[in-house]
Protein: PspA/IM30 family protein
Organism: Candidatus Synechococcus calcipolaris G9
Amino acid sequence: MGLFDRVSRVVRANLNAVVSSAEDPEKILEQTVIDMQEDLVQMRQAVAQAIASQKRLEQQYRQNQQQATEWERRAKLALTKGDESLAMEALNRKKTAAETAMALKTQLDQTDGQVKALKSNMTALESKIAEAKTKKEMLTARARAAKASEQIHQAVSKVGTSSSMAAFDRMEDKVMQLEARSEAIAELSTDSLESQFAQLEAGSDVAFQLEALKDEIEREKIGQASGPAGALPPSSSTSDDSVMDAQVVDSSPIDPELQRLREQLENS
């Protein structure tokens, strides 16, 4: 194979590929119907010309027939007048007209067959054009549906890709970070003075409870030291011993309780 043939084949292959990729079914079908309609117009013109030719041939055929009949009448007239030479001339004219009429008849028959064939082809082309229009509408609708389906599938495939989903995940993380930052700013933006006063109020409440407990303990100690109501106070000689005994008696149940309290506080 020569270099020229190879280059020519490559060029034709590339051109065919370009043309195939550029073909739009909807546009190609529309152009095909337009071409068929143009062919129909040309065929109608051809049929009209054939019919006009047939009409002219038919007129010429009838004229020659009439001329042949007329020359025959004239030949008879010349014979009745005794002019044989004139009658012979009239018969020659009759013969020419008759031969011309026969030739026209043959041509007229051929033209009639051509006109019928052209009319039949024109009718067939009209039927094909009507069928082509119907198919064009159907194929155009299918092509549009196929394009729409392809676009939908492409959009779905783009949404379903890992990169798209990763983008959604990243945006979700950013939203969570923004929410956490907003909550932190809201906590930091609270009034520090209010929190300090709240702490002071809580501390003063605990101190008040502590003082109340101390007073209650002191009252219990005084009540235990005074004894029953109406009893005389003990003598001075025994007061120290009684107080010491009371302290021993009173401290004995309190010390273990305090010890347990201290252990609970240390453990907590």
Remarks:
- The longest helix spans residues 84-159.
- Confidence is low (pLDDT under 50) at residues 229-233, 235-253.
- Residues 214-224+241-268 form one domain.
